[in-house]
Write the structure tokens for this entry.
Amino acid sequence: MIPISFFFGGARRTDQTAGRKEGLVGAMTVAWDDQFKRQNIMWKVPRNIRMNDNIVVREDEIAVFYRDGKVLAYLDRPDRYALTSQNVAVLGKLIQALSGVVQQAEVYFLQKRIFDGKFGTQDAFLFQDPDFDMVQLRAFGDFRYRLKDPETFINQFVGTFGAATSAEVEDRIKDEIVKQLNVTLGKMKANGLKVVDFAASLNDIEQGVLANSKPHFATLGIEILQISGLSIPLPDAIKDALEKMASAKVLGRTNAAAYQQFALADSMKAAAANPSGGAGTGIGLGAGIGLGYGMASQVPGMIAQQPQQQTQQRPCPKCGTMNAVTTKFCGNCGADTTVAAGSKPCIKCGKMVGPGQKFCPECGASQTLKCPDGHDVPANMKFCPECGKPVVQS
């Protein structure tokens, strides 16, 4: 007796055998074997599905039927589906589509489970830093994602991008994550992020990329669940500059002055190591020793001057904060520190007049007025404090 599977393709199909016809009428049963799933989010059945074929959908799968640039239907409940006219009540529009003029469709199997991937920048990207100007950077990290909307996923990746394999899908995801990383760094740079802050801000950058990615990937039918393991290594030139600046701060110098001194020292070392001639060696060695003595002689001077500079301070006339005598404006409130406390502007020229002075030292104008009864009235008052009569401003 000939088994019924001989006629209607009852055997399970795999990547290698799904393209073969079975039985006398060419019907086929299609299933995605576990051994071929692995890290593949998508598998395209090698041949088109026709009426009378059978589709096996498991717990972790979705079968999507695609034709003419759009999704016809998808099956997301685990079962064995026979594409026959007897299943119109169950399969609805799918059977109607396969019973029309074109009685076939492409089928894509999708996995529901969570996937892990790695991303990285193929080429260096530029980051404009206030201290180091344009810096070339690279970034690497991990991401976790899953299928969110099967219809949107197939319409976008298959219909719009022309992807046919899981590798092409993941390449597109990686490119989009790198794009969102650039967007996130741009936003954080506007809020003061510098390259020296990267190490302490990696968690914030990861969360920023995740937040920016979610709405973007929703339009592709994918949900990004996690961004982790982010690494943005600094170029060697930046690391060397940071080491020199750190050494300079030990000596109490500003970054710019220190960088110039260390750059000069490096050039002298290179001259001393130059084997082209004895004179160059002598010059490099002598200059290096001279620089060493010069720097050594400056350090005690800076240490000795430090207490003296700390004592030469004066209080702000407005808020009382202590400021260096060389400071013209208060670092706390911005008031002019060169004027005495209690000073007021001249009623004529606006220059500051010290307390107790009756005439402006700049223009000589009197700082007091007379009321109609002859009382002396300060220039900033409109009424006499003695009689209450209005004062005529000159």
Q: What stands out?
A: The chain has a mean pLDDT of 77.
